[in-house]
Write a structure and sequence with these properties.
globular, 16 helices, about 500 residues, five-stranded mixed β-sheet, about 15% strand
C-alpha cells in the first residue's frame, strides 16, 4: 500500500449492506453528471493559527543548521482506528506541526538543509471537488464529506511553503536523496515509504527535534500562556459544578465539564482529564473517572486545555469537595505545598533540571519522617540506595511542557535531566503525596488521601515566571477561591 493509499484506506463511506436492486451512485452516469453541476466555491481558507507559519519557518531554520547536507523527512501521521470503521480525531505529530504549523492528516514534509538555509516541500493528500466523483464518494477527502477543503495553492500561501500532491512524494524524496549525503526521518512516516527508499527507523532526527523544542520562542510562550489562561477558566467551570457532582453527577460530570470547556475554547483537552475523589485521588492517572464525588473527601483535578495551536497546559490542584479541608487533609496539603514551593525556588537559568526534583523530595522526606512514616533516617531515604519516601511519591515531580504534555521526551538524558535550565524553557513542577486506602504502612486517618499541586513555569533571564499562578496554591487560598467561584 502506498502512502496515498494508506491515507485513503478509509476514503469510502462506511460500509452498509448493499441493496442489490440499486447500483452504486458512482456508477450511475446521469447522477455523476448531475452532481458535477451547480456548485459554487466555498471558503477554503486553511485553518492556520496566526503566527504559526512564521514560527514554523524559524523552527525549520534551526533544524537545518543541525543537518546540513542531509535529506529530512517528517510525517504528520493519520488518525488511529477507534473501532471497526470509526476513527479517533486526527492530531498531527508534534514534530511535524512544529516544522509546518499545519494539522494535515497524511502529510509529509521533505527538507534539504544547507546550513542556515533550506529547501522544503510539503506533500499533502489531494482534496476532491465537484466534478470529480470522489467529491461525494471519498469520505476522507471529498469536500461533500469533510467540508470545505483547501487546495495546494491555498496551503502554500498560508504556510509560505511549496505544497504538492501526496502522489508526488516518492519523486520528491528521490530528488532530496540525490541532492543529499544521507537521509533521516522522524514522525510517523509510512512504512512503505521507508522501505521503498531504504530509510531506517533511526532516532537521531527525533532526538535533535526534541532538544530544539525545549527552548520556546516568544510565539510558543504566548500560546502556552493562552492555554494556561483557558485552563484556569476551566478549573473555575469545574469547581462551580462540584455541588452537582456530589449530588449524583460524580467524577465523570466534572471530567465532562472540563472537556467541553476545552473543546469550546481550544482544540480540546491536552491529555485525558484526571478527576479523582477520595480513594481515587492517590491513583496517579485516574482517567476512568467513574466514581462518585464524596463531599467529605479531597478532589484531585489534573487538567489542561490544548490550544488550537496544539500547545497544552498541565495544571493540578487538590480541592476539598465540601469547601473546607479537614485537619488531616490540610496537614497533607500543607506538606505538598511546602515541597512545591521549594521546587519552584529551584527553577531558573543555570539551575539544573534535577535541582527542583531534589528540593521537592527533601521536603517530602523530612515531612514523612516527622510523621513517623519512614522506616529509615532521612539521609538514608534520600540516598540513591534508599528512596523509601518514594513509596508515597513514585512518579517524577516535573517535566518539559509544550506541544506535548510531556514534551521533548525523545531527547537524550544529557539534554533533558542532565542539562541546565535556560531562558525559554517551559516546564511543570508537581510534587504530591499519594496515600492509598489499602496501604497498611499508613495510619487509618491518612489512607485514601491524595494531593498533587502542579504549576506551569517559563524560565526567564531573571528567574522564572509561574504562568498558572492565577490559581491559588495554599489551602486557605483554595478554600477562599472556591467560595468566590461558587458564590458561597
Amino acid at each position: 500500500m502506498t502512502a496515498s493509499e494508506e491515507v485513503a484506506a478509509r476514503s469510502m463511506p462506511a460500509p452498509t449492506t448493499p441493496d442489490p436492486r440499486l447500483p452504486r451512485l458512482a456508477d450511475v452516469a446521469a447522477f455523476t453528471e448531475y452532481m458535477a453541476q451547480g456548485w459554487g466555491t466555498p471558503d477554503r481558507t486553511p485553518p492556520v493559527v496566526a503566527g504559526a507559519a512564521a514560527a514554523a519557518a524559524q523552527h525549520r531554520s534551526r533544524l537545518s543548521a543541525e543537518f546540513a547536507g542531509q535529506a529530512l523527512i517528517v510525517g504528520a501521521g493519520t488518525a488511529p482506528v477507534r473501532s471497526n470503521d470509526t476513527y479517533y480525531d486526527f492530531r498531527p505529530d508534534s514534530d511535524f506541526y512544529w516544522l509546518t504549523g499545519a494539522a494535515l492528516e497524511g502529510a509529509v514534509l521533505v527538507m534539504t538543509p544547507s546550513g542556515a538555509s533550506h529547501e522544503a516541500t510539503l506533500f499533502i493528500p489531494a482534496p476532491f471537488y465537484a466534478g470529480d466523483p470522489r467529491f461525494f464518494t471519498n469520505a476522507a477527502h471529498g469536500e461533500m464529506w469533510v467540508g470545505s477543503a483547501a487546495d495546494f495553492s491555498d496551503w502554500a500561501a498560508a504556510l509560505s511553503l511549496p505544497v504538492k500532491a501526496l502522489t508526488e512524494l516518492d519523486a520528491g524524496i528521490g530528488a532530496a536523496m540525490r541532492a543529499s549525503s544521507g537521509t533521516l526521518a522522524a514522525g510517523p512516516v509510512q512504512a512503505d515509504v521507508r522501505r521503498r527508499h531504504g530509510i531506517g527507523a533511526g532516532g537521531a532526527l527525533g532526538r535533535v527535534l526534541s532538544t530544539l523544542r525545549m527552548v520556546k520562542d516568544d510565539w510558543e510562550i504566548a500560546q502556552l500562556r493562552a492555554a494556561v489562561g483557558h485552563t484556569v477558566d476551566g478549573f473555575a467551570a469545574v469547581v462551580r459544578e462540584i455541588p452537582a457532582a456530589i449530588q449524583g453527577g460524580g467524577e465523570r460530570w466534572l471530567q465532562g465539564t472540563f472537556d467541553r470547556h476545552a473543546r469550546t475554547v481550544g482544540n480540546g483537552a491536552g491529555y485525558a482529564t484526571i478527576v479523582g475523589s477520595g480513594k481515587h485521588a492517590p491513583t496517579l492517572h485516574w482517567v476512568r473517572c467513574d466514581g462518585p464525588v464524596l463531599e467529605d473527601e479531597v478532589l484531585l483535578l489534573d487538567m489542561g486545555v490544548e490550544a488550537n495551536s496544539l500547545y497544552t497546559a498541565d495544571v493540578t490542584r487538590t480541592f476539598p469537595a465540601s469547601g473546607t479541608f479537614s485537619p488531616v487533609q490540610r496537614q497533607v496539603h500543607d506538606l505538598v505545598e511546602k515541597s512545591h514551593r521549594a521546587g519552584l525556588a529551584q527553577v531558573g537559568p543555570g539551575k539544573h533540571f534535577a535541582d527542583f526534583h531534589d528540593a521537592c523530595m527533601e521536603v517530602i522526606a523530612n515531612g514523612l519522617n516527622d510523621w513517623g512514616l519512614l522506616p529509615v533516617s532521612v539521609d538514608e531515604a534520600l540516598s540513591p540506595r534508599g528512596q523509601h519516601h518514594r513509596r508515597y511519591l513514585v512518579c517524577g515531580v516535573g517535566h518539559h511542557l509544550g506541544l506535548d504534555v510531556h514534551d521533548c521526551a525523545q531527547s537524550s538524558y544529557e539534554s533533558y535531566q542532565g542539562s541546565p535550565l535556560v531562558p525559554g524553557m517551559a516546564l511543570t513542577v508537581e510534587p504530591g503525596l499519594y496515600f492509598h486506602e489499602h496501604d497498611l504502612t499508613l495510619p487509618p486517618e491518612l489512607r485514601g488521601i491524595g494531593v498533587r499541586l502542579e504549576d506551569d513555569i517559563v524560565v526567564t533571564d531573571a528567574g522564572s515566571d509561574v504562568i498558572s499562578e492565577a490559581l491559588p496554591l495554599d489551602a486557605a487560598g483554595i478554600e477562599a477561591w472556591m467560595r468566590q467561584i461558587q458564590g458561597a
